[in-house]
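// run 5 | inverse folding | seed 20
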């Protein structure tokens, strides 16, 4: 009886996730994310929704819920796993707990240049990483560009890793990010993205790190007047669908969804470039001091992070080598 009941409630949850009555032909899939609506990733998700609705002739509707309305990135992933939320977009750093392979992307100074980044994400390694969390019911559909992450601080410019000493630095909920900041000499403090503005304002943390569109659009530049372009990590965003929801789609619906996601990634890449330029212009106009220190001392200070990852998880060594050897 108990089993029957839990099976019935599971089916009910799935139907809720798809938001459709069993007999109706329209599927409504909810998609939650943590970013603000001015951010290019939000517009790309809205575009994805439009594309899939058009391709399916109105039979699939994706409703986008921004601003952490449905939960933090970690919570959104958990909702996807049980099938009570259909889709999300999170930073690859938030996926670390679900895919050890993806955690490799959090390694500082992993990429040589933009061409290297492009080859890894748009090639066989990218495809492999997108499906690496499927065993946890999280199916990656595409990557969105999330540029390069750099430090920003309330109190002083960060010119060398020594300047991080004594600073409480907000990091994502990611072991890799914690190890990186610790390696550089700062004190890492995980805070959910939606709570970061207040945490900076109240002095719970002194500094944080992110790409220019996030620094600008979430208005952290109002509190942090020093932005150091050290570009320590390149961590993409990932658009995901709950595998439970994916499996309820017909092969034709799956194809529409995949195509819509791929098209939204092309659109997002274009928005991203414009947004990076606009964000840098705007934060400078608002009085932020932007500096471009030499990157070598930062890269040098995090060599130990590679050693740590390799000794804790030797199974990741071939993937790290494969990424580094991609030409
Ligand atoms: C990036 C990323 C977000 C993430 C944020 C963070 O902006 O796009 O998905 O939430 O970083 O630092 O938490």
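// decoded
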């Amino acid at each position: 009886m108990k089993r029957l009941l839990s099976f019935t409630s599971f089916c009910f949850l799935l139907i809720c996730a798809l938001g459709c009555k069993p007999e109706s032909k329209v599927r409504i899939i909810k998609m939650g994310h943590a970013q603000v609506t001015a951010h290019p990733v939000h517009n790309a998700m809205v575009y994805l929704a439009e594309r899939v609705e058009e391709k399916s002739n109105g039979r699939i509707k994706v409703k986008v819920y921004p601003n952490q309305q449905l939960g933090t990135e970690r919570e959104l992933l958990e909702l996807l796993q049980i099938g009570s939320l259909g889709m999300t977009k999170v930073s690859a750093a938030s996926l670390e707990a679900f895919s050890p392979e993806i955690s490799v992307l959090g390694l500082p100074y992993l990429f040589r240049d933009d061409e290297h980044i492009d080859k890894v994400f748009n090639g066989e390694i990218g495809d492999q990483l997108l499906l690496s969390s499927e065993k946890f019911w999280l199916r990656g559909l595409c990557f969105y560009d999330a540029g390069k992450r750099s430090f920003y601080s309330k109190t002083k410019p960060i010119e060398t890793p020594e300047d991080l000493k004594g600073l409480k630095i907000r990091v994502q909920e990611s072991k890799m990010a914690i190890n990186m900041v610790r390696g550089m000499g700062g004190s890492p403090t995980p805070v959910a993205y939606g709570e970061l503005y207040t945490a900076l304002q109240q002095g719970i943390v002194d500094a944080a790190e992110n790409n220019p569109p996030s620094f600008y659009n979430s208005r952290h530049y109002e509190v942090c007047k020093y932005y150091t372009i050290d570009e320590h990590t390149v961590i993409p965003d990932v658009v995901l669908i709950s595998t439970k929801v994916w499996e309820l789609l017909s092969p034709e619906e799956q194809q529409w969804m995949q195509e819509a996601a791929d098209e939204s990634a092309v659109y997002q890449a274009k928005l991203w470039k414009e947004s990076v330029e606009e964000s840098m212009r705007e934060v400078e106009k608002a009085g932020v001091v932007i500096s471009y220190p030499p990157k070598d001392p930062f890269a040098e200070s995090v060599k130990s992070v590679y050693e740590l990852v390799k000794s804790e998880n030797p199974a990741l060594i071939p993937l790290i080598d494969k990424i580094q050897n991609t030409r």
